Amino acid sequence: MAVTEAARTEVLGGGTAAAADTTGGTVAAGRAAQELGLKRGEFELAVHLGIVRTTAEQAGGTPRVGREEIHRLRSEDGFPDALRERVRTVGTAEGARLLGSSPVRFTRLARAGCITPVTFCLNRYRAVVWLYLAQEVLGFAARAPQLLAGKSPVWMRARLDAGTDWRARIWRAQRIERLLSRTEDPWRRAAVLAGALDPVQLADVVDDPCERAHLAKVRPEPVFGPPGSVVARETVAQLMQADDPDEILWRRINLIMELDGARASRQAPRPETTIAPFPLPTPIPSPSPLSVLSPCSIPHPGCLPDSVCEGALRGGGRLGTAAGEDR
What is the 3-state secondary structure (H, E, C) of the chain? Predict the structure, then answer.
């Protein structure tokens, strides 16, 4: 069974309770999807593309959809078929059928960057299978019929002969732009751009570990959070990282510019460092002549058994643990 990018461990609607939740003039995502006639994946894609507008979610909560937004979409011509058609996705075989070309030709066009994937799924072998909006595929067929058959242009052959695959790069660029459009906070915007660099590149641009930690903390997630499965999350993280030298350079420059604005607005928070007072040593009284002449057989505050002192030097025992905590 395919694992979609928006895979979840639970049903989007959350059951009957979610369907009945309509507080504050808004409804939960499951109820909104039901009223709009959309499946879970279709609804999440509609929100991601901005077709369905959500309200600002509360801290720790999920986005909600206003009643007015549902009414607006339901009153559009051709509802609900027209709405479902706007989020209908196709793979290579169906996309080739829409173009009237072969799947090989469709793949070449996609690899060359002519057709942009909007999402992906993972097949049984955990390989990425790109999906495309059906409307965009039809739009491309109308705009560039000369590319659907015959000899490919020189620029397209040059890209393909060089082994270039633009699908992940263009998907990444559109995803970054959509995440940026949802926030005006400079640190969150910088965090979006930071997600396109691998840890080595990021550390080279942002050498302050406190700033890197803050970027990781405030990095915006997709509207409904990261994909549910570990494999899907790892795949998204890998696909989000720029892998071409010119793209890496472009992302580095954009991150530096965004960081300048973020630093000018406010500094990244730093952990409060509190230094515990070093305990004063317990004064040892001067030995009496009697203690010098004969060993002490009765313990007192100024007399430590040898075993305790050795334990302290080895870091064991009660004294050793206390010393370790002081450090």
Answer: CCEECCCCCCCCCCCHHHHCCCHHHEECHHHHHHHHCCCHHHHHHHHHCCCCCCCCCCCCCCCCEEHHHHHHHHCCCCCCHHHHHHCCEECHHHHHHHHCCCHHHHHHHHHCCCCCCCEEEECCCCCEEEEEEHHHHHHHHHHCHHHCCCCCCHHHHHHHHCCCCCHHHHHHHHHHHHHHHCCCCHHHHHHHHHCCCCHHHHHHHCCCHHHHHHHHHHCCCCCCCCCCCHHHHHHHHHHCCCCCHHHHHHHHHHHHHHHHHHHHHCCCCCCCCCCCCCCCCCCCCCCCHHHHHCCCCCCCCCCCCHHHHHHHHHCCHHHHHHHHHHC
